[in-house]
TrEMBL record:
Keyword Hydrolase: yes
Domain of life: Bacteria
Domain Putative restriction endonuclease residue range list: 33-195
Name by which UniProt lists this protein: Uma2 family endonuclease
GO molecular function terms noted in the UniProt entry: endonuclease activity
Source species: Sphaerisporangium rhizosphaerae
Amino acid sequence: MSALPLAEGWPGPSAERAHLVMLPDHPGPYTVDDWLALPQTEERIELIDGSFVVSPAPAADHALCAQRLVRALLDAAPHDVEVVESPNVQVGKEGFIPDVVVARAEPIVAGAVVLDCDDVLMVVEIVSPGNRKRDYVVKPPSYAEAGVPVFLRVELHAEGPMPLVEAFAERGGEYEPLATARAGQILVLTDPFEVRLDPAELTGPRRPRQR
């Protein structure tokens, strides 16, 4: 048996941390079937380039951003579309867990263990210090190649008014910039459905509801 390798930014052996998932020794790259056979755990485990990558639970501001984004997208979504946090998504030979996914309702309501990219309309990745390379370099090309129509990236910690939300549209297996908005600006999307969003609403104190 061997311990699941730790992702960059995860506390080392001397630090206090959650248990490691123990896996049988494996002669080669892991597959999606291996990924789906993993036991349930508190850690977020993704399959990237044949290896398992483990991330700790997100920070509170990251979780709050995801929750508010789900609410905003659900308010605008048609009834045959659902918006969920952190589902398993098979992306080619990879197994990703996006922060937020907009997908056709049928497989989600049916309790699918993993979503196929054919059912996914939008993925959202919220950048954290430990996953920056994955959200800027590793994941977007895989999502685009798999045909995910819209990719949204939310930056919480960078220069300028935050959050920063960037939207990209898939064109020929690659992503092209679609729209960008910082806190205080309005992000307008028409695909996969019409939604208007001020990124400032994703963080900070909750604003009173308009009556």
